[in-house]
């Protein structure tokens, strides 16, 4: 078995590229938000803060030395790049911002066409997004892929791209904050996908506590610490997603009740003696 190592450290060239991409995304987002406000449009500052925080999490994950042994550091990296950062970025509603910032024309119509296309609708279908996200995690940790990626920089970079992209896709599918094609993403479906994904993540963490990824040789203490962190850290991330879903359900239900109240006919005069 090869020596266990899970995170290449902040000096990797791929890490620098990922961090630079995250930083550029934040700069572009904030520039678009400023442009929107200068023309008199409202854009909540909390969305700026959320997206910037998500970018900062990604930059830190790829550039700052992570705590713990190799597998624990890998788990921290996974939780930051695949769960925490995606949720923060999605809460910033980047697609909505781009659509509002773009002037009317081919660019805006093209982006809307992509967002409302059948392939996009399939990708953001919660069960599909959950399969790509958590199924990918099982593939990484329960096959020789994890060990193989450690000595192959391109493969390791591809795995990192998948973790971030799949995490973004799942957070996007569960939250449904940006305008995409409707259908198949009701509250019940999103909640069920979140529950199934969280269960798969917890079972994976429990399995890794007993047996590390194939082809690796992490110390028992490091493996146990990383698996516990994966289990409880995943619970926290999934709880945050559940909170977003609950707030959306509460808000939509309240609006529906308000509409029904407005449409209900006013009571007529009470007849004499009635």
UniProtKB/TrEMBL annotation:
The keyword Transmembrane helix applies. Pfam families: Caa3_CtaG. Keywords: Cell membrane, Membrane, Transmembrane, Transmembrane helix. It is a multi-pass membrane protein. GO terms for cellular component: plasma membrane. InterPro entries: Caa3_assmbl_CtaG-rel. The keyword Transmembrane applies. The chain crosses the membrane at residues 12-36, 48-66, 78-99, 120-141, 153-175, 187-209, 229-250. Coiled coil: none annotated. It is found in: Cell membrane. This is Cytochrome c oxidase assembly protein. It comes from Streptomyces cinereoruber.
């Amino acid at each position: 078995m090869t020596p266990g190592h899970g995170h290449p450290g902040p000096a990797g060239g791929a890490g620098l590229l990922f961090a630079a991409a995250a930083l550029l995304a934040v700069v572009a987002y904030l520039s678009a938000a400023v442009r929107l406000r200068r023309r008199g449009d409202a854009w909540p500052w909390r969305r700026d803060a959320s997206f910037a925080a998500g970018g900062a999490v990604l930059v830190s994950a790829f550039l700052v030395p992570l705590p713990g042994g190799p597998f624990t550091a890998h788990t921290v990296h996974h939780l930051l790049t695949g769960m925490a950062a995606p949720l923060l970025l999605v809460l910033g509603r980047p697609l909505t911002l781009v659509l509002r910032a773009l002037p009317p024309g081919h660019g805006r119509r093209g982006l809307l066409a992509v967002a409302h296309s059948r392939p996009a609708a399939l990708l953001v279908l919660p069960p599909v997004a959950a399969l790509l996200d958590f199924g990918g995690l099982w593939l990484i940790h329960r096959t020789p892929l994890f060990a193989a990626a450690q000595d192959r920089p391109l493969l390791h970079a591809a795995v990192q791209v998948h973790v971030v992209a799949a995490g973004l896709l799942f957070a996007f599918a569960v939250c449904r904050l940006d305008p995409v094609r409707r259908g198949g993403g009701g509250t019940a479906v999103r909640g069920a996908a979140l529950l199934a994904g969280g269960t798969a993540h917890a079972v994976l963490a429990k399995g890794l506590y007993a047996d590390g990824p194939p082809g690796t040789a992490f110390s028992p203490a490091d493996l146990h610490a990383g698996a516990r962190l994966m289990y409880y850290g995943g619970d926290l991330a999934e709880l945050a997603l559940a909170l977003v879903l609950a707030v959306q359900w509460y808000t939509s239900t309240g609006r529906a009740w308000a509409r029904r109240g407005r449409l209900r006919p006013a009571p007529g005069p009470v007849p004499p003696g009635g």
